[in-house]
Each structure stands twice: as C-alpha cells, then as structure tokens.
Amino acid sequence: MVRAAVLPAIGSPLEITDIDLPDPGPDRIRVRLAAAGVCHSDLSLSNGTMRVPVPAVLGHEGAGTVVAVGEGVTHLAPGDHVVLNWAPSCGSCHACALGEVWLCANALNGAADVHARRRSDGADLHPGLNVAAFAEESVVSASCALPLPEGIPLTDAALLGCAVLTGYGAVHHSARVQPGETVAVYGVGGVGLAALQAARIAGASKIVAVDVSPEKEELARTAGATDYLVASDTTAREIRALTGKQGVDVAVECVGRATTIRTAWDSTRRGGRTTVVGIGGKDQQVTFNALEIFHWGRTLSGCVYGNSDPAKDLPVLAEHVRAGRLDLGALVTERIALDGIPAAFENMLAGKGGRALVVF
Minimal CA–CA distance to 190: which of 12, 37, 20, 322? Predict the structure, then answer.
C-alpha cells in the first residue's frame, strides 16, 4: 500500500489516498520517492489546461531509490539513485531522428496506461505525465529513470527532473545566451529561478527578473538577477531604460500568459530573441502586426522541456552543482508533505514562492 495524491477528475481537488501498485513488469522499475517538486504543469493538468487521463496520480518532477526491477532491466538495480524523466524519447520518431528528443512524438504514450488502483474502490489510476511522482513509491518505465550522478543530494535532485532542465535549457539550448548578453526572465517560480541561475552561468552581463510579487526580489537576486522589476504596464519601457534604450538581447517567458509573452517580446532589442517556456491556455491569444515583425527582426520561439536531452544534460548540470555554480536548494521555498500539495497549488495561483518540494 502506498500513499499518493490522486486527481479524481479535471477541476476537482486532489485526494490524498492509498493506492495499490503492481510489481514491475518487463522493462519497468519500482522507485521509492525521496522528493517531488510541485510544478505549474501539475496545476495545468489538474485544471484542464493540459490534457490528462483521469483519475490520475500527478507529479512529474522527482528523484528516489530503485527498490525493484522487472525483467530485461539491466542498466539499473535496486539501491540505485535515479532522477525521473517524464518525457523519455522513443529514439525512432521523426523528431528523435532529427535529434530533437524533447519533441518526441511518443514521449507521453505511457500517460494513458493503467498505473495503479485506488485502494478504496479498485478504480484504475493513470500516471500523470508518465511517472506519478506524487506518491511514496511509483512503478515507471525504465526509460523514465536516469542514474543520478554522484555528489548530488537525492532530495534536491528531484528539481533536476523538470525545473532545472527546463530553465537551464531555455537559456542554453533555446535562447543560446552568450557571454556579455543581457537577459530578462519573466516569472520567478521554480523554472524562472533556474533560468536566472543559468543566465548567470552563461555569463550574461545584466539579468533582469520580472514578477508580479515584490516579495520575490531577494530570491531572484540570490539566483543571479542584477535588477528586479515588479510587473506592470511599463515593464518593457523600464527594461529598455536599463539597457541603454535598446532592450535586452534575450527574454525568457516562464508564465504562459498572452500579456507576458507580448511584454517579453516588446522588451527585447531589435533582432532580440524571446523564448516562451510558460504553458498557456488556448484562450491566450498573442497578436502581432506584420509591419512590426519585419521592422524589429525579433525571434519568438517555443521551448519544450528546455529543448533538453536529459540523458546528455543531466551530467552537465551535476557538474555545475558540484562546482557550486548551480544551487538546487535556492529554488526551494517550501518543503512539504503530500497533504501540502493543494496549498502549494494555491500559492502558485497567487504568485507566491519558488518551488515547493514534497519530501517523503
């Protein structure tokens, strides 16, 4: 028997309840979770912004210890520490053949599987984004687990599974920030804090953090921000004033709102680059006129999972952690139990804090 946070239906509150997990079958493993991060994507799944089969065990950012392996699993063994990878690449679809594994067409096929059963009534449960990390233990495909490099605390390693891969990748892979460039990061949550650290690691000369909450300034500056702005109708103008009336070279949008995306675009220089990480709803329409697209010569691009290849990027991130360049703990503003997840959702909606981390 395992305790888990279950989404019974879209728009319904999470239920903390007992579930029954099967033994790991072929090419599957059972993992005892050490920690799981509460990501905005989990909130988007719960409210229907992103589709998920329900009822489901949510949670996709986690790390833990392998406790059992199924037939055919040779690269992992009981006792191994792993980071969960919610979007494993199949290696054979068109995107994977191009080397764009973050766009794998089959990455989320497992989300429709029956993952476990609710103890109270035997109802089938699906794994939200493949890995069902909001649980004391989970059974996942072996492809969803990456060996944790040495020297990384297991609890904090959960953040590597989404927030850090996404924020770091947005800066280094999507926007490709170069030393000396100027950067604005919109949204100082877990991903935004990771993006701020990544911009500092990249050698950005000025890093402007933007958020609706004035209380997040200290968090942002600790992560690497040189300037902090409370979001307003004049944000783009203020950023241009901070950059010699030019605008930043790169804007990273971690919110997923039409107005924020538009402001991020407006805050970049002529020829600047805007990377959109935030997941917005279909009702969020961003508009541009044809003349400004020509005149400004800016680039606007989406960014999925930081355009990362987790298997290749995890060792790089681990080296940054060991060298002291990347501080995982600085992303965490609250350590909670499973029953604290609903409150963490409310805090995200209210724009409070960085990453909440469920510690088992």
Answer: 37
The whole-angstrom separation of Cα 42 and Cα 56 is 11
Class of residue 282 by CB neighbours under 10 A (exposed 0-12, middle 13-18, buried 19+): exposed
What digits encode the pLDDT tens for the residues 145-183?
999 999 999 999 999 999 999 999 999 999 999 999 999
Strand ranges inside 8-75, DSSP E: 15-20, 28-38, 56-57, 61-69
Which residues sit opposite 157 in a β-bridge? none
Distance CA 11, CA 242 (A): 42
Structure pTM?
0.96
Distances (CA, A) of 89 to 109, 142, 309, 334: 10, 12, 9, 31
Read out DSSP for 97-158? Answer: HTT-GGG-TTTTGGGGS--EEETTT--EEEEGGGT--SBSEEEEEGGGEEEPPTTS-TTGGG
